[in-house]
Amino acid sequence: MNVNQQPHMASPYGQPQPGYQGYPQSGYGGQHVPGGYPAPYAPYNGPASAYQPGPPQGMRGPPTSGAPPVSAAQAYSQFGQGDIQNGPPPLGAPPQRPPVSQPYSQGAMNLSGPQPPYNQQFGAPPTSMQQMTTQMASMQVGSTVPSPAGPGYAPPTVSQPSVSAAYTPSAPSSFAPTSTVPTQPPSTEGTPQPYYGAPPQQPFPTAAPPFSAPGPTQPPGPPLASQQTFPQAPPPSQPPFSSAPPQVPPASYGGPPPPVQASHPRAAPPTSQPAAFPGGPPPTSTPTQYTGPPMQQPPVSQPSSFHSGPPPPPTSAAGFPPQGGAPPRPPHPGIQGPPLASQGPPMSQANHVAPPQPGMLAGPPVPGMAGPPPQPGMQGYPPQQNGAFGQVRGPQPGYAGPYPGQQSYGAAPPAQAPAPPAPKRLDPDSIPSPIQVIEDDKANKGSEPFVTGVRGQAPPLVTTNFHVKDQGNASPRFIRCTAYNIPCTSDMAKQSQVPLAAVIKPLATLPPDENSPYIVDHGESGPIRCNRCKAYMCPYMQFIEGGRRFQCGFCSCVTEVPPHYFQHLDHTGKRVDCYDRPELSLGSYEFLATVDYCKNNKIPQPPAFIFLIDVSYNAVKNGMVRIVCQELKTLLDYLPRENPDVQSNIRVGFATYNKVLHFYNVKASLAQPQMMVVSDVADMFVPLLDGFLVNVSESRVVIESLLDQIPDMFADTRETETVFGPVIQAGLEALKAADCAGKLFVFHTSLPIAEAPGKLKNREDKKLVGTDKEKSLFQPQVSFYANLAKECVAQGCCVDLFLFPNQYVDVATLGVVPTSTGGSVYKYTYFQAQSDQERFLNDLRKDIQKKVGFDAVMRVRTSTGIRATDFFGSFYMSNTTDVELAGLDCDKTVTVEFRHDDKLSEETGALMQCAVLYTSCSGQRRLRIHNMAVNCCAQLADLYRNCETDTIINFFAKYAYRCVLNNPTKNVRDSLVNQCAQILACYRKNCASPSSAGQLILPECMKLLPVYLNCVLKSDVLHPGADVSLDDRAYLRQLVSAMDVAESHVFFYPRLLPVHKLDVECDTLPVAIRDSEERLSKGGIYLLETGLNLFLWVGANAQQELLQNIFGTPAFGQIDSNMTSLPILDNPYSKRVREIVESFRAQRSRYMKLMVVKQEDKLELIFKHFLVEDKNNSGGASYVDFLCHMHKEIRQLLS
Ligand SMILES: [Zn+2]
Fold it and tell me: Taking the model in full, what pTM does it have?
């Protein structure tokens, strides 16, 4: 076993972490003496005596066997039957599961039948790289003579690890899955550790989820009170979403006329609501009513975009009084912001939007929203600013405020006092506000730790800061689900159309105060697993027969407990060492893998990093070559390592290229590096075996010499052509020769048109955009790269691509290898050293240093009744169940969709276990396990009450972005709209309280579904403006496919912070505002971040003092809009703003370059593109218009 051979195996995971109270790490291998574990902690088999706080004292005797008896475990040889997964690769058994590519919904969403993800295209046999003799010129970089290379070198054959084992989901049907959940109370003996002290049954509570209790339709008491809290929008005359427009025939609104809101009475805040959390009554159950969408007749004139309208009143930006966070805000008459979080019952109501006006109903059905701006149905809206709509409706009834408590359940809402005349258009304040939802969640869930032991509970939103306590289910930082209560039957699931998926980030970085998963060693026989389904030991296994056997929570099969793992049970049936063992009490942990889990049954070599630098004319000219070489000299000291005290085990290698490749021998014994040129790129091979991959510490001098020389060597190059395929092949061959996994860092500038495998042609054709042939632009133009990617995955060769294009480079094709190998693509269009190097260097530093695993295989097992059917992300699949990632870093997510196989039980819930087998950066083979249990519900209302819109949007975006490979974008948009309409219609029909058919009623947890969906529909991938390049679209498409929920959230709905409201005296940020131009004040300064971009928008009337403090000049006209960083000024304001910029950057995986945008400046167009609640230039609908459109779609479904 390799365990003892790894000196620092346990670090960082095993080290005691401050935050983990009471769980002394040592027991889990934390202490490692060089060479192995200290005796006391021999492999974790025994009861870990070290855990003091833990378990009941009497029972944890010393481990029955210090060292795991190897023999015992044999019974379940992990891979015995070939149905192993993660483990050593057995050959592929016939996959019984449906192809991964199934359309995820059978309903209307089915765009076009099975859609093979493009990663499946690698059907073709890998091209075998044969070595060939080539003309290879050997030239010397330094003074020494190049060593011979070439011809004689036999390239390693492609060894293809059989990674894929077919998994037979044979669940014993006869086995009624009894609830294996320990329902007993926590063992009384022993002092429970703070951390583990949680009630034992938590991991699998069989009880009904706390949230499900109240029926959705019950009018929550509190909400009513809060109803008035809605700040009344100004436009009195226009009933934006007023519930009952006076002139409308009552019939159309089923209920009583919408209440007119009086001045915003801040009624008693519903104090009781939010309490819901850990177990409290579900706040979410009461429907909130929104005043319906405007039902106006189609405006005669097309609604003008918000931008074009008259400038919003300066005060509108002030919409939200900067609230530090929560306290009820004082009633500001003029303020239209949404009510404070604390005022209304945030989550408690369903949202009813007021009944549509007759006119609207009459409108012709709008086929896809996506169309050009003016949509037939949409025009119903009051044109925003131009006041064109002739028929001004009478006084607008107060729009029923959606927010917090707005409730009008049909009942008569408080009458609203006539407001001052306002522009005729819907009041955006009357529709669900993302900011309000975000702030409410912070107020309600940000203060208490989120404990994972309560099954079926949705975690705080990604925008809320919270602390997680692992009590048996994976932290939301690792797994977020679209729904935490999934329907018991397939029929219910189809009816609701709510996607059932999990967004999994297996190696997510945790905040400093949360522990990384502990490492568990089950000895030479490897991790304990279920005999049948091979699930790994976890809290869902129930020990029976006095502890001699355990029943699998996934397949119900009973397996013998190997002697070395035996432990007695307490009176509740729980193992007495339960809290001593991460795998019995936690949602996430790691197992040390044995040699059986290694490729070819060999302990892996430490991985290698190979840097491949384009040295063609463009690369030299734009400064990239010099910057990369300079930076690498420093970065090599920061290669990933698991223990900060030791040097990285990662070896490095260097090559440069244009249309030929140059390899460098940097062996420590050389006085100067040597270059070897391979000009026959038709069949790439690596000309030197020894000296290409070296240890940094040993070869530092030679490497530095090389990096100093490269920029000069090619300074005068005139070569403009490049190759690309052979570059990756070269890196791949080098890894094969070294018999290791690793990562290639390719720095590339142009379309590879030089004669070579993988040569591309310029196929950029914007005329195809919007046509049925548009999809071809997202597909790779040649199959070469898909085949190459397959070979890379087999070798554990991950590729990160840094692009510096000045024109079309065909990202759709060049990105195939990176996105199939778990790699990343970075793009710096029109790269200029001066303005872009900061961004590039920060990305490079982060990319090189981040935690990464290699040669990974991920398998998701589920309990009987559901199964993983589809996967999204940057990986490769050679069968239907194993997600293969040549590299897996801490930022990558894999999204998994589930479908029903059978009826699920409310009692047992549904379980999933994600196991990722990977090689750590030190070369240790490990299995990271994440367990997740969710509730199963027989009532649709429970589904709608426990879902997470941000995750649903993440899933929809990935699904849609994959669909564009095979479908016209319009069809993709239409089907997204249709599916969301079905989701909301199903809620309306089955869960909402009876009310007027004309009311738009949104489930509380999904009230932002329309606004976020609209952002996805308007995104550059699905609905590009004329100025969006094909490369940008392909790039974004690939990028989003591996995003986690936090990244996709800010990407689709950017964060917009009113900097001028900053209180430099306190640490809290001002409350963000909605992404709409009308929220901006000419006197303000705003910071907008998307995860990729960062803008600082400066209003033309911004205070001089503010400008002086931030920019060092009091004159708006003198602000340099070319600056990419703020001047460092000695005043608290400057300091605080710069800190905020840095903190935003620190939260994202990619560095965001700062752009200063002055109001009315030409750059403002770019900035406005991110004001996603507004109509955009390419035809994307405004939020208000889209909501009305959704309402219409829903009504059609209901009628
Ligand atoms: Zn099993």
Answer: 0.71
